[in-house]
Amino acid sequence: MRLFSAAILATLLAGCVAPSTTQQAPPSARPPVTPPMSQPRPRPAPSTTGFIAPRVMNMPGLEGVIGRNATDLANIFGPPRLQVKEGDATKLQFGGDACVLDIYLYPLRPRAEPTATYVDARRHTDARDVDRAACVKALRR
């Protein structure tokens, strides 16, 4: 069996080390280099200058969170352990032994202050979803 395996391996490796038979042509025999054809320029994406209002979560037990700004939320839960800004949106993350709470803030109208519109909650041990209202209650100061 070893001899058979060694023969297969030798055959496979022999194909990898074949001698090169190509020779490089002298510079005078090479075809002239032509410039690449110009590619059409990609069209820019259409601008999204219009404001799109976010959907606002409406669940029992979240009334004290939805609609609050970042300062109000810090007063309720303490300083966030994570704050991520992207464009006009903000994600605040609060955590404790019971759960991790992610609160997403968006402006409700153009140039308005971002307020909480969506809440997500999970266990910190395995990231499985938990009841949002129970997490809010557990993390309140």
Main β sheet profile: 4 strands, antiparallel
Give the strand content. 15-25%
Which architecture of the domain at 70-139 does the CATH hierarchy give at level 2? 2-Layer Sandwich
**Helix count from the secondary structure assignment:** 3
Dominant shape: elongated
Give the CA-CA distance, first to last residue.
71 Å
CATH class of the domain at 70-139 equals Alpha Beta
Structural class computed from helices and strand pairing: alpha+beta
Share of helical residues: 10-25%
Radius of gyration, rounded? 31 Å
The total count of strands amounts to 4
Query: Main sheet: which strands, in order across?
Result: 1-2-3-4
Which segments are poorly predicted (pLDDT under 50) over 5 or more consecutive residues?
none
Output the helix-strand order.
HHEEEEH
And the CATH topology of the domain at 70-139? Answer: Beta-lactamase Inhibitory Protein, Chain:B, domain 1
The average pLDDT is: 82
Short description:
The chain is built from 3 helices and 4 strands.
Protein architecture, described:
- The mean pLDDT is 82.
- This protein has a domain at 70-139: Beta-lactamase Inhibitory Protein, Chain:B, domain 1.
- The protein contains three helices and four strands, in the order H-H-E-E-E-E-H.
- The protein has a four-stranded antiparallel sheet with strand order 1-2-3-4.
- The protein has helices at 2-16, 70-77, 132-139, and strands spanning 82-86, 89-95, 100-106, 115-122.
- The longest helix is centred in the first third of the chain and has 15 residues, at 2-16.
- It is elongated, with a radius of gyration of 31 Å.
- The chain has 141 residues and is of the alpha+beta class.
